[in-house]
Amino acid sequence: MERIDGKKTFRATIENLKVRLIDRYIIRKFLGTFFFCIVLILAIAVVFDFAEKIDNFMEKQAPVKAIIFEYYLNFIPYFGTLFAPMFVFIAVIFFTSKMAIHTEIIAILNSGMSFKRMMWPYFLSALLIAIITFFLTNFVIPHANIKRMSFEDQYYRSSARRLTTIENIHRLESKNVYVYMGSYNPISERGQNFTIEKISDSGRLESKLSAFTVVFDTAVMKWSALNYYIREINGDEETFSRGTKIDTALMLRPQDLARDPGFVGTMTYKELNDYVELLKMQGSDELKLFLIEKHRRLANPFAIFILTLIGVSLSSKKIRGGIGMSIGIGLILSFSYILFLQFASQFSLK
């Protein structure tokens, strides 16, 4: 008897979740308003961005074709997916408030539909947007960012804008082999106070190479230690040697030590995962930045559902002040969301 009742309950649930005429109406309203909002806001963003950068474009004689197809065609999807949860929230606030003012929400609830059931078309729309956002962010936008950043480096600002001296670099080169640089200059590809230590499985030092300077030789693609000093330990015996120059077998490359912060946005989800594992093995200080990006890409689609629920809850009732009050509250919460997101990211990095 319980089994039969369970089947009936399951069938009733499935029947209740079938998309009806009112569901299609809400989905159409949701997606239509969302895409209208995103087109409007992106148009404003493009105008302001162009106004800010037009002097640089003219000074460096950027071709119109490159501005349109290499920069803005890749800027638009990047900016759109970055703030997709905010656009969803504003869209939900806007069209749900209009439905509430026109007493459509009251009519839906008086027809016998529960508030929970009314959320079903909202979540279906949010699911579609979340899937598109996740796909674009992890598989399409990284390739677009490569072209966009290349254009910026050529026509907007110097590619060496972030190439500053880096202090206290620690890396795990391979199992039990540790590399340290007191400072590294990515322009000259030269490091100071360089050491390579090889540690045994028991934790004892087996050998240590120290050098005042290390430089990357582009001719042989190897790091060369200058004025080096080597200490080797074999049991109770120690040997010492020194010289003016010696090539190392390090697998590190200069770009591994001085990544542009924007580099994280050029990696697909699989590449990002693989790179995070590599940084964990190396014990790199960059790990936090890449972990934040990985978790952000996973969290953004879920934020769409959460902000959809909050938006419907805020705007499904008539309030004094009408739709303007609802939109005002929505904008305040949207900017609060962005502010908290940026604050949390910087807080975790520092």
Compact summary:
The chain is an alpha+beta fold and 350 residues long. The protein is built from 10 helices and 6 strands.
Quickly count the helices: 10
Overall, the morphology is elongated
Averaged pLDDT = 84
Query: Order of helices and strands, N to C?
Result: HHHHHHEEEEEEHHHH
Strand order of the largest sheet: 1-2-3-4-5-6
C-alpha end-to-end distance: 61 Å
Helix content: 55-70%
Decide which structural class fits the backbone: alpha+beta
Low-pLDDT sequence parts: none
Radius of gyration: 28 Å
Q: Strand tally, please?
A: 6
- Residue share in β-strands: 15-25%
Quaternary state of this entry equals single chain
**Total discrete domains:** 2
Major sheet size, sense and barrel closure: 6 strands, antiparallel
Describe the structure.
This protein has 350 residues and is α+β, with helices and mostly antiparallel strands. It contains ten helices and six strands. The chain has two domains: 214 residues, no CATH class; 94 residues, no CATH class. The chain is 61% helix and 19% strand. It has a six-stranded antiparallel sheet, with no helix packed on it. Strand 2 and strand 3 form a beta hairpin.
